[in-house]
Structures are given as structure tokens and as C-alpha cells.
Design a protein that fits this description.
This protein has 189 residues and is an alpha+beta fold. It has nine helices and eight strands. It has a domain at 3-119: Jelly Rolls (Sandwich), CATH 2.60.120.10. 51% of the residues lie in helices and 23% in strands. Helix 6 (147-157) packs across helix 9 and helix 8 packs across helix 9 (178-188). The chain is elongated and about 55 Å long. The N and C termini lie far apart (39 Å). Pfam families: cNMP_binding (PF00027). Residues 11-132 form the Cyclic nucleotide-binding domain.
Length: 189
Amino acid sequence: MFSAISDFFKTEFPLNEHGLEELFSHFRLTHYPANSMLLQAETKEKKLRFLNNGIVREYYYNQDIERNINFYVKPQFISDLLAFNQNTSTRKYQECLSAVEVLSIDRHIFFELLEKYECGKSLVTSSFQKLLTQKESFEYNHLTKNPETRYQELLVKKPEWIRYIPQYHIASYLNITPETLSRIRKRIS
């Protein structure tokens, strides 16, 4: 149950063995069926959530329009880290596109453990640096590249998205219609 999250901490942010054992003892496994909502806008992130298995889409919703901003298909943290860290409400939604397993730990317990093992500041700083890099890349690509180029980059950098995510969700991520995506796919195949 903890192999994916254990691998994350061992490679991304090593804690001592005792710290990992205590951290993992507080995580709880929850199963969600497909189409379940994991996160809703205007709610607080009370738990740090780690996708153990399954597929999750993340999106914004405004005036009857959903705009996909990310997909999670590999084991990784899926919490809105900004809302989680600052204890503020999120503006994002997350929906299970398949059955999903999530490991979660209460926010206050997580921060107590980071203080106890004196690793909180570096973990939060490292997480925010990665988040900022991803956001910068997303914005740059969406503002400077055409949809066909962005789709070709997905084929190379995120082939699992192409395999597992419905095409209408990919079209929303690219900010195009499903019909336009179909034409792009036909042109490049």
C-alpha cells in the first residue's frame, strides 16, 4: 500500500527511517469510484492526498465551462498545495476518471511531523519550486504554442495521458474543441 509514496519520499525528499514509519502510520487509504469528486472549489484542503492508483482530472469551472488544467495518472501528491499550505480555500475541482485509491493524512498531523523532524521548510520550499516550474511551463505553452504543437508535446512528454484520458478532456486541456483535436490527430498520424 505504501510502496509508491515510500518511493517518492526516498527519491524526492528523504526522511530518516523512523520519520517515514511515523509519517506512514498516519496515512489512511480511501477508495473512490469513477466519477467521484475529490476536491471542490471553495473548500479547504484539510488533508494531504497522494494518488496511489487511478486517474484524476483537475479543472476550473466558470460560467458552465470546465477547463482541464492537469491529469494525474501516476502515483503522486494531488492536493492543491497552495491551498493546503496556506490553509485557504481552493479554486480547483478534482474528479476521478477511474476507480481511485488515495492515501491521505490530516493537515495538522502532517505539519506537526514536519516540525518534529525539522524538515518542514525544505519540503514545502521544494514542493513549491516544482509547482511554480509546472505552472510556468503550462502558461508558457498555452500562450506561445499552437494547439497542434502542444498536442505533439503531449505525445512525447505525457503519452499516458493520450492512452488513458478521454479525448474530449484532452481537447479541453488544449483549449480547443474535440473536433479540432480530431483534425489535428488525423493530420499528424
